[in-house]
Amino acid sequence: MRRVVVTGLGLVTPLGADVETVWANLLAGKSGAGPITRFDTTGQKCLIACEVKPADHEYGFDAGKRVDHKIQRQVDPFIVYGIDAAGQALEDAGLVDMDDDLKMRTGCSIGSGIGGLPGIESESIVLHEKGPGRVSPHFVHGRLINLISGQVSIKYGLMGPNHAVVTACSTGAHSIGDAARMIKDGDADVMLAGGAESTINPLGVAGFAQARALNCSFNDRPTEASRPYDKDRDGFVMGEGAGVVVLEEYEHAKARGAKIYAEVVGYGLSGDAYHVTAPHPEGKGAELAMRMALRKAGLNAGDIDYVNAHGTSTMADTIELAAVKRVLGDDLSGASMSSTKSAIGHLLGGAGAVETIFCILAIRDQIVPPTLNLHNPDEGTEGVDLVPLVAKKRTVRAALNNSFGFGGTNASVIVKAI
Amino acid sequence: MSDTADRVKKIVVEHLGVEAEKVTEDASFIDDLGADSLDIVELVMAFEEEFGVEIPDDAAEKIATVSDAIKYIDENKG
């Protein structure tokens, strides 16, 4: 059986625009949240978000580093983030210069939950105010979700499978899981896989606030707003950014002497079949996804040392925790579980990929990132290590990432030390 | 250099992300400045906005170089 390993990582997040900076800031307990600076928030219920910082910030993002000026002007920010994260991952894997044979065996599966909402919003205003003749000729392909995979394949000449998952906040995890299967099935030897999102625009913030999903009660204390499992949690804080990994067939990676971070050993998927935005109250879908991932991995509950929870800082946190307990045991069989959304917010379609990268780094460095702002754990959290406030050194052999999305879509990915 | 030429070149530099020195009057948008057909549609829209001219599709198709654009604008702006 073909095995799939991770040989490259790329991150653009509110805590930095490269893997080591993001990871150091995350372990140091920093928060990426602040007042929204992208637009005038007058009239909005939610005034805060975790924005990717501008280039002149201490850990800001310089779009010009890997994305042509012309493309930056033509496409939505989620595509720019995705192209950059994919470039980082390829550079990290030592695969920027591939021969033609390998290019034909290398594909892309980089998705997004929502896609180019900011551009749809602004171009709608152009249409309304100036007429159809002023709509940009780059409007459509600058907003489409599969255009990260498209742009990356054109930039690097990658002719393998070109795919893009759209499963709301499960996108990043599904992208990695599906791409791993493509390698297992022999469709490709190398896949760039991940997700990206950028919807911190008036319509995106208003839409999630109206759906009663966003935190609107900590506008004066943005860094305290994302507080998974805490009694005072009141909705998620929107983040943005991208996470992309290089997945590679194990023998291929070994033969070229690649640095191997971890193996993708388990992947589970399910549907809640319950409600468009609310999770099943008993977390049945989440449980199914986790059980499938464990079964595929051939692991037992006690083998999982770290769970990067979906944990969005909503009422659903305790539903997920109850499901994790049913799968791993009341004390999670000694595993630690944290939600890094407490620090970087909810990256929506990017979340599952970014958080799987955190699982991989936890394995690499034998340390688990904290759940910030967890001062008063909610009922049902007793006896579980939710890694409150500070990072924790511990053995991490295998780690599980959960991602759940609107529509009741669930994905769990398990990575393991090789 | 005419005022029209200056403003056209500024738009080309901004939209195509090319160095100003490359935007000579005989430069071809496609062959010399890396534009594709959609970029030209976008440039023509930007010229229309900047100069308040209408550039119909059949005229836009004949604009291949920077000087073609300057000439059309000078002849047609109000």
Automatic annotation (TrEMBL), chain A:
Metabolic or biological pathway: Lipid metabolism; fatty acid biosynthesis
Record keyword Disulfide bond present: no
Catalytic activity: (9Z)-hexadecenoyl-[ACP] + malonyl-[ACP] + H(+) = 3-oxo-(11Z)-octadecenoyl-[ACP] + holo-[ACP] + CO2; a fatty acyl-[ACP] + malonyl-[ACP] + H(+) = a 3-oxoacyl-[ACP] + holo-[ACP] + CO2
GO BP, one annotated term: fatty acid biosynthetic process
Gene3D superfamilies: 3.40.47.10
Coiled coil: none
Broadest EC class assigned to this enzyme: transferase
GO MF annotation list: 3-oxoacyl-[acyl-carrier-protein] synthase activity
InterPro entries recorded: 3-oxoacyl-ACP_synth-2 (IPR017568), Beta-ketoacyl_synthase (IPR000794), Ketoacyl_synth_AS (IPR018201), Ketoacyl_synth_C (IPR014031), Ketoacyl_synth_N (IPR014030), PKS_Beta-ketoAc_synthase_dom (IPR020841), Thiolase-like (IPR016039)
Annotated keywords: Acyltransferase, Fatty acid biosynthesis, Fatty acid metabolism, Lipid biosynthesis, Lipid metabolism, Transferase
Assigned GO CC terms: cytosol
Residue ranges constituting the Ketosynthase family 3 (KS3) domain according to the UniProt record: 1-417
E.C. number(s) listed in UniProt: 2.3.1.179
Catalytic residues, chain numbering: C169
Keyword Repeat annotated: no
Pfam name, any one: Ketoacyl-synt_C
Family of the protein in this entry: Belongs to the thiolase-like superfamily. Beta-ketoacyl-ACP synthases family.
Its biological purpose: Involved in the type II fatty acid elongation cycle. Catalyzes the elongation of a wide range of acyl-ACP by the addition of two carbons from malonyl-ACP to an acyl acceptor. Can efficiently catalyze the conversion of palmitoleoyl-ACP (cis-hexadec-9-enoyl-ACP) to cis-vaccenoyl-ACP (cis-octadec-11-enoyl-ACP), an essential step in the thermal regulation of fatty acid composition.
Official protein name in the record: 3-oxoacyl-[acyl-carrier-protein] synthase 2
Native organism: Novosphingobium olei
Gene name of this polypeptide: fabF
Automatic annotation (TrEMBL), chain B:
PTM-bearing positions, type O-(pantetheine 4'-phosphoryl)serine: S37
Pfam families in alphabetical order: PP-binding
Pathway(s) served: Glycolipid biosynthesis; KDO(2)-lipid A biosynthesis; Lipid metabolism; fatty acid biosynthesis
Entry comment on modification after translation: 4'-phosphopantetheine is transferred from CoA to a specific serine of apo-ACP by acpS. 4'-phosphopantetheine is transferred from CoA to a specific serine of apo-ACP by AcpS. This modification is essential for activity because fatty acids are bound in thioester linkage to the sulfhydryl of the prosthetic group.
PROSITE patterns reported in the protein's UniProt record: CARRIER, PHOSPHOPANTETHEINE
Gene Ontology annotations for the cellular component aspect, listed alphabetically: cytosol; membrane
Superkingdom of the source species: Bacteria
Subcellular location(s) per record: Cytoplasm
Family in the record: Belongs to the acyl carrier protein (ACP) family.
Matches recorded under PANTHER family: ACYL CARRIER PROTEIN, CARRIER DOMAIN-CONTAINING PROTEIN
Function recorded in the entry: Carrier of the growing fatty acid chain in fatty acid biosynthesis.
Protein name, per record: Acyl carrier protein
Species this protein is from: Novosphingobium olei
Name of the gene encoding the protein in the UniProt record: acpP
